[in-house]
Amino acid sequence: MEMSWDKLADRCQLFVDTNKGLLIELLKEAEMEMARQCDLVEETQKYTMPTPAGSQNLILPQDYKRMTAVWYNGSRLHPMADVEVSLNNSNNFESGTPSHFSIQRHPHGEYLVLDRIPTSGDIKISYSSTLTGKLNANKFLCIFHSGSGFWIDTSLGSALNGLNGNSYIDGVGPTSFTNMQYELSSNNSGQKFTIESGTYPTTSAMIDIQYYRNVAPIIPGQYHKDLCDYAIAIASAKANPEMHNKHLSLWLNNIEKIKNEDADRELIHQIRSEI
Question: Per mean pLDDT, which range of 51-60, 172-181, 250-259 is the poorest?
Answer without folding.
Answer: 51-60
